[in-house]
Amino acid sequence: MIYISYFGIIYTRYNVCIFVFTTEVISIQDKNLNDKNRYPQTIGEKLRYIRKAQEYSLEVLGFEIGYEPSMIGHIERGEAKYNAEKLEMAKEFLGVSGMPLTDIERQGFRNKLYLWRDLIKDHKFDEAKKMQKELSPITILDFDIELNLLYDLFYCRLLMKEGNFDKAREILANIEFPVDEIDGDCLYNFHYTKGVLLFCDGQYKEALEFYNEAMKKLAMNDTVEQKKLNFNTALCYFELGYSFRSIVLLENLYSSDDKSNINLSIGNTLAICWIRLGFLKKATEILSKCYLVALDNKDDDELIGILLHNHGCLYRKAKDWNLSIEYFDKAFPHFEVGSLTYLENLYQKICSLIESKNYSSCTELISEGKKLSAKVNNEKYSILFETLKHRINLSNNKSCDYVKTVTVPYLLEISDNYRASEYVELLRDRYARVRAGNAKKSLLMSELARKIYIEMLEGGELK
């Protein structure tokens, strides 16, 4: 999608095309850019395109740079050339100073876009925003589809890092481009970014499809991107509850000697997979080592918080409720209030309190979770915190029915199989304890638990 800060309608000499420049999103596809004849090719043609888009006449531009209008007309038709000084004056007046018009300039600008992406990836947001101001005029050169595509995709990554998913969705939804005219690197970034957004939206199976497409476009010698893409794929498997599949990928990616943050994240996820499967000793070794390295690195506060959180999950699995709650409390200062990591940490802490039968502060914490979830419009955690209220009173038929008819179906719908299996087991245990009239319900829960287990074990579809 292209963002233009100019207004008006431009007609060509022969009235064969119309360009509308507004501050709204303009779909590349809507401009029929598959017609190569509409691409300006030379510097003169490109400057004419920009001049007309901004509704400047030959006379106005000529006056600003000290050229006769006829001379500019010759240049735009390729019959003459700007000298270096006049070219820079023209670019500055048209607002595209520093923007790429030649092939060499385009390559240099492309490199800057990737430097910008790296700043975003490394959470250097102040520097990234400053650099964005330098790069954003590329949107005026909307005929350069590849550079605009990369700009939009990396801007999406910045928006997602900042938590502005609505804006990122809007941009990606409006991106259209002629696939046969875009190089493999741009296509890789498109599929990768789309996969990341789908993952953040909880659409893990759809995200896997885009990651697989991204892998097809990725240069074989780009080992860093391969590692990152395989890790994201493993995260999809993890979120779907496919712990074994996730472990296979993560074991190949994790190195106990690598102190990079991405390796620590890989180790952290690997540890959680082992926790889910009950291999607590393996998980403890990995988490402890990753936590010490993360403390030494001191450059990713959220990662430190996640490692503390996962220690809490480890002790919750070991049924050491007090220690689990202690680690969840240690993790809170590392998360932004209302963020996904904060909500998950709060959810897990309440689970530990309920499981330890320490109900005194649960009501207040559940209320906090529901308010924060509503504030950020997060349906998943709104349902989960409401579920915790019913989990406390699971002996009550109404609460039991809520978990059965709302919680479990929703978790299965969003493919959160691991959490769904946890609530199915709770229902089965409850029906087994209260035998009168519940034998059939208990059997149904046992059958559903079996199907979910098969889904997590084999990655098959629930029937």
Provide a short characterization of the protein structure:
The chain contains 22 helices and two strands.
Q: Can you describe this structure?
A:
The chain is mostly helical. Helices cover 68% and strands 2% of the residues. Strand 1 (8-11) and strand 2 form a beta hairpin. The chain is built from 22 helices and two strands. It folds into five domains: 28-93, lambda repressor-like DNA-binding domains (434 Repressor (Amino-terminal Domain)); 103-223, Serine Threonine Protein Phosphatase 5, Tetratricopeptide repeat (Alpha Horseshoe), CATH 1.25.40.10; 254-332, Serine Threonine Protein Phosphatase 5, Tetratricopeptide repeat (Alpha Horseshoe), CATH 1.25.40.10; 335-392; 394-463, no CATH class. It has helices at residues 43-53, 58-65, 69-76, 84-93, 103-121, 125-135, 145-161, 165-173, 184-200, 204-217, 223-239, 243-253, 261-277, 280-297, 301-317, 321-331, 340-355, 362-375, 379-392, 397-413, 417-433, 439-458, and strands spanning 8-11, 18-21.
